[in-house]
Amino acid sequence: MKKPLTLVFITIISLLVLLTGCQPKGESASEPAGGEASADQKEHPLANKKIALIMQINLGTFSAQYIEGVKEQAEKFGGDVTVFTSEGDLAKMASNLDAAINQKFDGILIDHGTKEALTAGIEKAEEADIPVVVFDADVEVEGVPVLQQGDEQMAEMTLNKLAEDAGGKANIVKIWVAGFAPMERRQIAYEQFMQSNPDIKEVASFGAATANTALDTQSQMEAILKQFPNEGDITAVWAAWDEFAKGAVRALEQAGRTDIKVYGIDMSDEDLQMIQAENSPWAATAAVDPKDIGRIQVRYLYQKINGESPEDKIILDPVFVEKSKLPDHSITTEELHEYIDGWGVSDQGYTADLKELEGK
C-alpha cells in the first residue's frame, strides 16, 4: 500500500508545481516593475518611509502646488505622504499632530501653525524619535528645522517696486492679517518701509483668513472702492498673501479701476494667469516656488531621518516676478524659470545620500 500512496502524493505535488508556474504574474503596488531598481530601493535604509504632512490650512492653488512638491519629492525617495488638514483650527491641528505620532509615522512635516498649538506635540514626536521639519511657523524647539520664505525680503521687494512705480508718492491699501508667522515678518518690513517713505500714505487696511479668503477680500475691496471713487484716491494695493491679491484684482477689474495697481506676495499657476491677463492690475509679486518649498522641506526631513542635524533656521531665497518681464503668451509656473531667474530650480537640502536614494 505504501508505494501507490507515495506515487499519488508525488503526482499531486507535481501538478501543483505545474499549475503554480502557469499562473499570470501581476505587479504589486509595493514592488513596482523594474527588476533590480525596485529591489535596490526596497533594501535602501531610507526608502519606504511613511510621512505625515500636518497643515493648518489647505487653501487655494498655492497650497495645492506645495502639497504636490511634498509628494513628488517623497515619492522620488520611495516614501508615501498622508496629508492631515485642519481647516484653520489650531486645536484640530494639534490633534492631527498627536494622531500622526500615535500612528508611528517615520517623519512629520508641519505647514504653518503657532508655537502655542504645536510645541508640546513636536516635543512629543522628538521624544518618540519621529523627526519633524516645520514650514512657516514660529516654533522654537531645539533640533527641529524651521523653513521660512525670506518674508521680510519679499515684502521689501514688492513695496520698493510700488514706490518706484508711483514715483515715491502714493495712497495705498494694505491687505494683511495677524496671527501667522510669515505675515508678522512681512508686517515688520511694511512698518519699516512706511517710516522710510513719508509720502506714501495708508488710506485703508483690512484682511482676514477665511474659508473663502479671495472672495471675502473681493467683497471688502469693492466696499473700499466705493469709499474712494476718484482716480488718485488709491494709487496701489499691497497684498501680503496671494489669496488677498486675487480678491483685490477681481474687485478692481469688475469696477474698471485701471488706475490702481496691485503688488502681492506668493505665486501659483492661478496667480500667474491673472498677472498675465491683458490689462491686469497685478503688477508684481515676490515668491518662492510652492513646489520647491515642499521639495526642500522633504529633503531636510530625510536628512533628519538619516541621522543628520540640519540647522534650526532655514531661509528660502525668494524670486521677484514682474508682469513686464513675462511673455505675451500664457505660461505656467513650470515654464516660469525660462523668463525669471532662480524660479523652481533650487537644489537646497540635497545631500550625497539623498541624491543616491533618489537615483534608485
Automatic annotation (TrEMBL):
Principal place of residence: other
Domain of life: Bacteria
SUPFAM superfamilies in alphabetical order: Periplasmic binding protein-like I
Protein location: Cell envelope
Pfam family, one: Peripla_BP_4
Alphabetized GO MF terms: carbohydrate binding
InterPro entries (UniProt xref): Bact_Solute-Bind_Prot2, Peripla_BP_I, SBP_2_dom
Chain ranges of the Periplasmic binding protein domain: 51-308
GO cellular component terms, A-Z: outer membrane-bounded periplasmic space
Family: Belongs to the bacterial solute-binding protein 2 family.
Name this polypeptide is given: Sugar ABC transporter substrate-binding protein
Protein's organism: Bacillus mesophilum
Lineage summary: Bacteria, Bacillati, Bacillota, Bacilli, Bacillales
